[in-house]
Amino acid sequence: MRERPDPIRLGMVGGGAGAFIGAVHRTAARLDGNYTLLAGALSSQPERALASARDLGLPRGYDSWEAMLEGERALPEGQRIEAVSIVTPNHMHYPVARAFADAGFHVICDKPLVHSSEQAAELVRLARQRGIVFGVTYNYTGYPMVMEARRRIDEGSLGALRKVIVEYNQGWLATKLEDSGSNKQSEWRTDPARSGIGGAIGDIGSHAENLASAVTGLQLEALCADLTTFVPGRRLDDDANVLLRFAGGARGVLIASQIEVGEENDLRIRVYGERGSLTWHQEDPNALILKTLDGPTQILTRGNAYLGPRASAATRTPPGHPEAFLEAFGNIYTALADAIRGDADARYPSVADGARGVHFIEATVASAASDQKWTPAHYAPEA
Amino acid sequence: MRERPDPIRLGMVGGGAGAFIGAVHRTAARLDGNYTLLAGALSSQPERALASARDLGLPRGYDSWEAMLEGERALPEGQRIEAVSIVTPNHMHYPVARAFADAGFHVICDKPLVHSSEQAAELVRLARQRGIVFGVTYNYTGYPMVMEARRRIDEGSLGALRKVIVEYNQGWLATKLEDSGSNKQSEWRTDPARSGIGGAIGDIGSHAENLASAVTGLQLEALCADLTTFVPGRRLDDDANVLLRFAGGARGVLIASQIEVGEENDLRIRVYGERGSLTWHQEDPNALILKTLDGPTQILTRGNAYLGPRASAATRTPPGHPEAFLEAFGNIYTALADAIRGDADARYPSVADGARGVHFIEATVASAASDQKWTPAHYAPEA
Amino acid sequence: MRERPDPIRLGMVGGGAGAFIGAVHRTAARLDGNYTLLAGALSSQPERALASARDLGLPRGYDSWEAMLEGERALPEGQRIEAVSIVTPNHMHYPVARAFADAGFHVICDKPLVHSSEQAAELVRLARQRGIVFGVTYNYTGYPMVMEARRRIDEGSLGALRKVIVEYNQGWLATKLEDSGSNKQSEWRTDPARSGIGGAIGDIGSHAENLASAVTGLQLEALCADLTTFVPGRRLDDDANVLLRFAGGARGVLIASQIEVGEENDLRIRVYGERGSLTWHQEDPNALILKTLDGPTQILTRGNAYLGPRASAATRTPPGHPEAFLEAFGNIYTALADAIRGDADARYPSVADGARGVHFIEATVASAASDQKWTPAHYAPEA
Amino acid sequence: MRERPDPIRLGMVGGGAGAFIGAVHRTAARLDGNYTLLAGALSSQPERALASARDLGLPRGYDSWEAMLEGERALPEGQRIEAVSIVTPNHMHYPVARAFADAGFHVICDKPLVHSSEQAAELVRLARQRGIVFGVTYNYTGYPMVMEARRRIDEGSLGALRKVIVEYNQGWLATKLEDSGSNKQSEWRTDPARSGIGGAIGDIGSHAENLASAVTGLQLEALCADLTTFVPGRRLDDDANVLLRFAGGARGVLIASQIEVGEENDLRIRVYGERGSLTWHQEDPNALILKTLDGPTQILTRGNAYLGPRASAATRTPPGHPEAFLEAFGNIYTALADAIRGDADARYPSVADGARGVHFIEATVASAASDQKWTPAHYAPEA
Prior knowledge:
- Four copies of one chain form a homotetramer.
- Helices cover 35% and strands 22% of the residues of chain A.
- Chain A is an alpha/beta fold.
- Chain A has a nine-stranded mixed β-sheet. In chain A, strands 3-2-1-4-5-6 form a six-stranded parallel β-sheet, sandwiched between helices.
- In chain A, α1 crosses α11, α4 runs parallel beside α5 (117-130) and α5 packs antiparallel against α12 (351-368).
- Chain A is globular.
- Chain A binds chain B through residues 1, 3-6, 20, 23-24, 26-27, 30-33, 54-57, 170, 172, 263-266, 282-286, 301, 303, 316-327, and chain B through 1, 3-6, 20, 23-24, 26-27, 30-33, 54-57, 170, 172, 263-266, 282-286, 301, 303, 316-327.
- β14 (297-301) of chain B pairs antiparallel with β14 (297-301) of chain D.
């Protein structure tokens, strides 16, 4: 348990009453005691924003993010927020993140980062220029066994990597939920104006891309995507199947779907190398399966002494006391707190990871519209 | 996510640097934002107590629980703590709990409650007399799917219950860890002076008894216990196998062991009725398995609409976003917060559950020493 | 695949139309091509016996086992059957086995062997005297991973054994199926005249006892049994929970039930030693789980090179091509064929194992009726 | 258990000493007592062919398949074989099958059927013309739960199908096993002259295609394949990832690999429809997972009364007594026996299924060589 006495002063944009992800961010921030939530512009509707702030007992509620930016800048340094969490629908990420980053606040932004690679590049540039910490909550990389997978791959346990199969299977959009009038999530996530050009591929395919990158370190080179909209009348893809080619010769498959009936939040990855393989599954996150050429399958479990330092440091409880989604999300927040406090070794999904994710979405959408087999998908952040 | 603006003022006794369960309690208290930890006497060693309080940034650190009791009583009502969490080794539960309860503070005490049924009866009496909330952190009943199991049984889905198999399998004490000099947990838990008369049966058998009771509502009538100390030189049992007989004719088996090599925290329960059965496993806590006379096995999972109101209210995230040990522990703290705020419907493991647990430990130890097959084990709280 | 050109001439008593286990025995005998079924007295009803023999195309159908014994004895040595499989309800095992053994035929008898330990002792004596092979189809020990478990224990991988948990969970008798008029199995198995003094404890508890013995080699010393008849009107136990004490200090629990709704054929065993543990589950029989003090859990799977010679020899297909119930049963038949052909190293469940099983049933029934905690259960075959 | 008195007279080409699949075919043929193996040309090497026949005790051993064809034709009708099993390396399937089919023998041929779609079309034509039964041992469709999956889809339980994910994951060719000198399997399977144009895609991708077709009934329309040879020096693909498009709009992914370290024989399929989904896994073949829009996940298990007639008829033992690879293979043989005996309702993988498989292999290899995204893959058997 990592508990520290001096919490970071945090503000939040979005995440008012009824939003799912805002509460997750607040719990993640609270989990290890590293943050204190002092300010919020929790909705795009002024009345609702203020009411939500009151309900949560926030010291400083604002009726718009612009008002919050102005208000906080006007406070003395020791009082104003140090970092802002942006948990709005996607289309608001860019203006809010740019403004707060430009003003020197640290930024924690939900994924996918923004709507276009141009916007992403601008944020990467700005974050570097202002010297701020800018994290993107690809939360699944916060699981200790994901960290352990990367460690073992980096140490060469698998030999050269050959193949990656990454899947994100969901079924909650198998019907036209966005027409039910009772599910805000589905409304904005299927609306191109707010969600961006990607449906399932943007919402969860982006997580899958990030997980594959975080676990393997491989660079994507080209892809071939088949995007489908199965639910009649829906305006964005709800199913994506993608062939992947990585620099160095590794191949892969990425599956992301929101119409696979009965699948809950089935994110999983398999990585095959010359000498071994690793399997991880988000719905059973405390285990990492290791297979080798000759020996028995091994089940590595969180909390044991045979794991590496990062997986151990990201662990709060002993083996068999499962940690899960909120703890992994909390690990991202804690790593960001470390970074904000100056720890140069802190690792978290950065604005560059976010930019690569946006690039990936653009490449899949372009590929889906193309008759050409392979669409280049290399992400090269500008020097 | 249940977030409320007015946190309850909490103090803590025990749980300083190096303790496992103290940090768990603090995280559980923090998780939903229902408590603010203001005071602590975190160690029996004064220096260490004060240092730990400083490290955690507690507003009011005390060098002993007596000093804390005195200090807090002296504060104005709106400032002093409202509740105290007791997370010391077992032998300190009674004096601390009695003193704070007597002074009218709400009490949250770790398990097993106390060393003897006389002490337990005294606390039950005192809690009633003072009108305080007194919870015992049988944390596993905080899992939503445990609540759902009870609901289905109460609704008669299984018909009359026939058999209960409850197990708590651990292996961490398969060697003489208490002699390693580096594991405080094992030292006091294997020391009768601090742990009480039960070893494995007290530490985790008590959890198993509580889980069986919470899930089934059955009253234990008699038991037949075989307690063993496998590790040479250990002074308390490290393995327990118990036959159970319940009022009304149901039978059962309880297994609790800390020498089962490789088992991590394998608490599980199976309940068989005339028409159906339920299985739950702590290491895979988001699922509840339902079997019936004729149909396919069903896997019920946390977060779905087909679950009852208690399981739903104890859930923070959608299906497939696993919640785990800390969230279940947090659910106990949140239910206690509800109770402290006056919610008469709040359900949590109470001081009476704690007393029944102590009674159970005494009965197993007596049975183990007896040549008689059945030892009465009925717990009748005094009227 | 073990295929041999000279099949053993086999006869069968019992196993006519509608019987479950007769067809299993025939398939097991046929699987590796080691037997040819030439003669049968397949029912106690003469007409039915002859009709069943015709339906199966048996060269020599008899209307009673006595007629078969006489008829086969009258044939020249190279034509008459060499071995007989006895697959009748339990009460017929003894007279048939005794008569055929006495006449010098090899005997393959279903379990439990007979109704009393006196009968069992007589068969043990007779088999030795006549120099015949006498196997009892405790078929579950025919699984390769069960053999591997024993090998690893014999080699000391687990260190000294401390604890055994063996379970046989079924639910098919949760209702009064024997009154349905359509289930022969349930009729004779719940009838003391045909089944013997044990219900669930005899039918499947006996399998559990045998599995524990086969895997661990431990000698049972004493037991404490709680037998229950849950279904009203049933005349034998349908649920058994038993505490076990082994020579040398190991302890155990045996659970056998036929009223656990929804359980199919859930035979499983866990063995814990000082340094490791092994888990095996009949419904997932190609895996053996190995846990150690410090390393990751290992999943050993059938067909791999790291397994010992017996498990390998009992395997027909490569890893991942699952083998199951019939193959394990076939392994018993094949080992018996090896023994009949003179292989002194062939291992199979013998008449002595059958006698020990009968002794176990008697001890549990005696214990269940006793107020004394421990009932002696040591089986000492006469020298 | 389906036992019949009048076995079909069977011959075998290939499958001598050291071959894996020959013994599997013989066991499958023997399992239900439907065949008697009378003749064999078990190797392409005359000496070896005769020795193998002797070792197996075959009444009529031949030194070549041509000799066997001639010899059997010369026998009287009631003595000569009725059917021939062809279990040679792939390149011999065509000449042998054509000759025996042409002579009016029923043919049971291993997969993939032949090397080219022209050869396949010829066999389809010939089988029709001669009126023979011609089966191709796509053995995995012999599993009862695969049959049940098809039944539920046909009955509309899932609604219109949207997506199919079928995988066949193996790792046994992750190293250059074909150079070891001790593994015949790997030698011919990686040799284009004997195996054909497909490596992994032909050997196991073909099984995956067949399973998807058997379970869903969907017609493939186009595909996009990425075939890779990972092991240096190997001459055929050892890894295949394929996007699928079906007539009617369903989409899919097919993965077939033999370099996925540690995977044994991991064939699995997931089918998603508008209202439900089904999952089946060959290494856990007795279960079929059914998910729906609103209810709990259901685990359907072999042997239960809620299953359909085909799954029930293909079942030998009660629930929980697992049946596996050999039983499923045996079910194909038994269905072929039914067909040979004139049962018009018998269902088995036919020569047309084999031809479609060859067509699929050709389409994937063509797609892998193409820059065009989609390669037509519709199989239209000539009228």
